From TrEMBL:
Coiled coil: none annotated. Residues 1-172 form the Reverse transcriptase domain. CDD domains: RT_nLTR_like. SUPFAM superfamilies: DNA/RNA polymerases. This is Reverse transcriptase domain-containing protein. It comes from Plutella xylostella (Diamondback moth). It comes from the Eukaryota. InterPro entries: DNA/RNA_pol_sf, Rev_trsase/Diguanyl_cyclase, RT_dom. It holds the Pfam family RVT_1. The lineage of its organism: Eukaryota, Metazoa, Ecdysozoa, Arthropoda, Hexapoda.
Length: 354
């Protein structure tokens, strides 16, 4: 697996590539012409006395422009159309998964290092035609085969191999420690968010106002990505303990005061973190079940052919707690939004008391 990073991705695309991509996407020619006129032969002046002479803008779409991610995505789509990767990547139920893309955050997949090296090199060459340069210092390799020591070189540069990588805000780690590492990282980030707004929580405001600050600024940081978590007892316990510690800070008590959790919640009035993560996961599970043709659903139903479970107790799976509430036919039940919504309260109760 390779995590790809570009140098100045949003503002280094050639202007002709942007126009060509707009035409290939069959965007209305009036919008294409408007964008072309905006960026073709553009000039600027610095309006400070004395006013400067016109300076030609030689860059493409600037990163601060709100339209730049959309134009970059169109160009990137054309780049990937040049790549013949039908037989590369991971074989998932007869289909090949070779890349995932979110704007300029790209992940490439392969089942052997030779193919992965070829894929990265081909992507680098194709991107260069459109003015994009791959940042090889930030491009990383990750593998679940520790015995594989082959170096992957791109343009004579060895790509660094890493044990963990933060992708789309979540830390990816191969193996059993993937979730526990991410939960610990979420807790650290939640405390960092608390320290930034601690001055506001110490002001002379009502408990309801403090709770609103917590729910809007700290809780989203603590629960980011909770839709993908497997709710083991260890993870739920870590989340509870972290939130109670933050609540004690907000209320102004310590463990030595020996206040019960019920009293603490009555004083803080914050949203319970377990209810929050349960609601997020339940909503996401329903979305995945109703989304046909997506990799999320395909991977959820996929069973590797010829693979056997390792010895020992099976690990808890992402769907185990969902099946406990809605049964083995939960995907069929999720097609009915009203019925799925009715089961959310029962699922939250199961997670809280599981």
């Amino acid at each position: 697996m390779a995590f790809i990073d570009y140098k100045k991705a949003f503002d280094s695309v050639e202007s002709w590539a942007v126009i060509q991509s707009l035409q290939n996407a069959r965007i209305d020619h009036r919008y294409t012409q408007l964008i072309e006129k905006i960026y073709h032969n553009a000039r600027l002046k610095v309006n400070l006395p004395p006013e400067t002479n016109p300076v030609r803008i030689e860059r493409g779409v600037r990163q601060g422009d709100t339209i730049s991610p959309k134009l970059f995505t169109l160009v990137l789509e054309d780049i990937f159309k040049l790549l013949k990767w039908e037989n590369r990547g991971l074989n998932i139920a007869g289909n090949r998964l070779n890349n995932l893309r979110f704007a300029d955050d790209i992940v490439l997949f392969s089942d052997n290092p030779h193919d992965l090296e070829t894929m990265i090199q081909e992507l680098s060459d194709a991107s260069g035609r459109f003015g994009l340069e791959m940042n090889l210092d930030k491009t990383k390799i990750m593998t679940n085969c520790p015995n594989n020591t082959m170096d992957i070189r791109i343009n004579q540069t060895v790509i660094e191999r890493v044990e963990k990588y933060v992708y789309l805000g979540q830390e990816v780690v191969m193996g059993k420690k993937n979730q526990t590492n991410e939960i610990d990282r979420r807790i650290r980030l939640a405390w960092a968010a608390y320290s930034k707004i601690e001055f506001a929580l110490k002001m002379n405001i009502t408990a309801e106002q403090k709770a609103r600050i917590h729910d809007q600024c700290i809780l989203p940081v603590l629960t980011y990505g909770a839709e993908t978590w497997v709710f083991t007892k260890e993870i739920l316990s870590k989340l509870r303990v972290a939130q109670r510690a933050i609540e004690r800070k907000m209320v102004g008590v310590t463990l030595r005061d020996r206040k019960r959790n019920e009293w603490l919640r009555e004083q803080s009035k914050v949203t319970d973190v377990i209810k929050r993560v349960a609601n997020l996961k339940w909503q996401w599970a329903g979305h995945v079940a109703r989304k046909h043709g997506s990799w999320c659903k395909t991977l959820l139903e996929w069973r590797p052919y010829g693979e056997t479970r390792p010895r020992g107790r099976p690990q808890m799976r992402w769907t185990d707690d969902i099946r406990k509430t809605s049964g083995s036919k939960w995907i069929e039940i999720a097609q009915d939004r009203d019925e799925w919504h009715k089961l959310k309260e029962a699922y939250t109760f199961e997670v809280e008391n599981g």
